Amino acid sequence: MRTLIKNIKDLIQVREPSINMVSGADMKILPTISNAYLFIENDVIVDFGSMNEIREIESDITIDATGKIVLPTWCDSHTHIVYAGNRENEFVDRINGLSYEEIAKKGGGILNSAKKLQETSENELYIQSSKRLEEIMSLGTGAVEIKSGYGLTTQAELKMLRVIKQLSNNYSIEIKATFLGAHAFPLKYKDNKDAYVDLIVSEMLPKISQEGLAEFVDVFCETNYFTVAQTDAILKASKRYGLIPKIHVNQFTTIGGVQVGVEHNALSVDHLELVNDDDIKLLKTSKTMPVALPSCSYFLGIPYTPARRLIDNNLPLALASDYNPGSTPSGNMNFVVSTACIKMKMTPEEAINAATINGAYAMNLSKTHGSITKGKKANVIITKKVPSYSFLPYAFGSNLIDTVLINGKSIH
To answer: Which whole-number Å values give the CA distances from 13 to 292, 354, 410, in the listed order?
Structure first.
């Protein structure tokens, strides 16, 4: 199947294959070709350029994108979309004044989701999760990471990861699986937390490895959750099974999570609502991608990741949705990009770079996703007619997507 998209108002995020991510001042640069064409063969980008230089191209499908912008699909590197039910009651609790931590202490939060998931069949869990996956695909996400972590027993964690694998087998979107058994401590281990760490290390990890259910491992390294020492133990054990670290750090407190992440060559450190000078120095010496989750800050009313401080210190930054039932019940990356501009003072160029090429890096997908590059997957968003790409984050409440192509095919 050959598809030609012609008369593109602006073709943005055009990159050379050698560029895997952008940092610092380079994040303000968004390479663009105006009055452009894009040629796709099967599931791959094979050519693009100015309409003034277009050659004769035979295509099976031709799309006229007059007045429209074409950009790579969003790369959402942090989600929890495999979950059961919802937590709207906690939403009301927060309105009535309870904090995230207070809700967790009275049995809500992650433990609430874990109870629901343990009681839900694998088939029902798949049905619920597939609807969320289809929704984010329609909103322009073309690659996504999905974590476990609402199981908190060996059986339930395996159930979640099997559902993620089934989704990956059944949908065209690229899905990366992350084992997050260290998301919270089950009640039975509240007085012996190291025993749960031992369960993760001695039982969960070997079984996950045996079935090939995850590429990444994650730990919620935070006060009242997993200590730096416990995080270190889990990451050390995970290396024996070839799992790549991606960890939750600095959401509510700074306890040394960035340091342990960098020491283990974590692919990304996610949240970073709080950042200190030592964190910035460590990140500068690493290849670890900082990842901000602005819709989580929006929903919980907590500080936003200090994007300006990170970028102005010549660091890269990725944006992700954190789609989950408790703190971010939305996977709308268009809203994420808008919120980053409005609340984190990122420029449209920085936000789009963070949600595409840098998001791909945070999932080990730099070679195939995140930019308009010959040889990469033909995953693109075609907008409705808009005056410029800055209009996308500006009109934060509007659906400005006309068509989404994943692997060269329009999704519906």
So the answer is: 20, 11, 20
